[in-house]
Amino acid sequence: MTMLVQKIRQIFDFFDNRGLDTLFLACISSLIIIGLVMVTSSTADFAATKFSNPLFFFKKQLIFILLGLVILYVLSHIKIDFYYDYGQLFLLFSLILSLLVHVPGLGVTVNGATRWINLGFFTLQASEVSRLFFFIWLSGYIVRNDFNKHYLKIFMFLSLLMIIIVFQRDFGSMILLFSSFIVFSFLLNIKFINLFKVISLSIIPIILLVILYPYRLQRLLAFINPWSDPQGSGYQIIASQIALSSGGYFGQGLGSSMQKLFYLPEQYNDFILAIIGEELGFIFLIFLLLLYLFLFTRIMIFYKKTKKISEFSSNLVLSIVLLMMIQTIIHILVNVGLFPTKGMGLPFISYGGTNLLLMFTYIGVLIRVQIENKQSHSQATHRGLRQ
User: Fold this and answer.
1) pLDDT in tens, 37-48
2) Cα–Cα distance measured from residue 353 to residue 61, given in angstroms and rounded to the nearest whole number
3) What tens digit of pLDDT does each residue of 193-227 get?
4) Residues near 245 by beta carbon (within 8 Å), at least 6 away in sequence
């Protein structure tokens, strides 16, 4: 027992000496493990029927986790100045990447939505990466330029990207991008009049995008009253609520979900929280929500420390935590029936190559910022000792 304690202490010391937040990393690791277990549990029957292999999704998720760790390692060794120096290219890439889905032979259409790029070994959801690229550019642009004076110009670029994403029929990604931008602006003390102008300019187009597309309007009506169309647009919401309510306090038991047996669509992705609630119960859901709360709190504390060291790095940290946090909130609200159905996974837990790899990308960048913060602190301490 003493040896185990010493080993754990050595691991904590190893990360601490490099400026890494051990509790932050432990939180991420816990979510990834929970995700791997729940993806396996929620897909075993479906995979056995469709692919004659109950571990089909487990193996793919594990491959994406290993690939994600490689991405994390690589990004943790790339200096943050790289993103600052090439910010304009990241903005350009965000637009080009989103347009590539419309290139014949490259774009992939599923259920009428063209959101993916075929890379051969897996399909990349363009809007996921474009969001990050946009915020990398924005984080540097507002260091070089006054945020308030150039706010409408920035919004024009944002609007262009949102229009491209809307043509992919990815309304959820557009909402996530817009919401993150508004909260980002608010936290950086943008003038109220600028914020009001942008929100006012956006309300009518968003309403029109809902009204003019019947399937979006049906989703909105189903959200208001899912029982008005229980076999159609309200089906997913009802199935999700049945799953959550049948779990009780302690759940039906791991692997014992009934709703995953071809009742609840996207049970391993958009509605994985409902399956977690059904199998592991309300108590475990509370634990999971606290885990997310702890993670986002740690990143926000880290953000405040970074503000004293680097404005660009702190902007980047803030944008990453907002993208993760708002996505988590939307997923939870959809699963409990408090938000219209959106195709949005639960960070680190839902099945899905692009989103999971993007989460590892976020963590790789955050780790690099932590390392550089530690280096800056050490250099400042060393200079102080020399003086």
Assistant:
1) 999 999 998 899
2) 7
3) 999 999 998 988 888 887 777 777 777 777 777 87
4) none
Packing angle of the helix pair 353-386, 126-144 (nearest 10 deg):
30
Cut 0.70: pTM above it:
yes
d(CA 220, CA 125): 24
Amino acid at 252: Q
| C-alpha span between 302 and 295 (Å, rounded) | 11
Exposure string of 209-246, with b = 16+ CB inside 10 Å and e = fewer, is eeeeeeebebbeebbeebeeeeeebbbbbbbbbbbbeb
Q: Is 114 exposed, middle or buried (0-12, 13-18, 19+ CB in 10 A)?
A: middle
The phi and psi torsions of 19 (rounded to 5 degrees) equal: 80, 15
Cross-strand pairs, 125: 116
| Contact between residue 154 and residue 297 where contact means Cβ atoms under 8 Å apart | no
Q: Which amino acid is at 270?
A: D
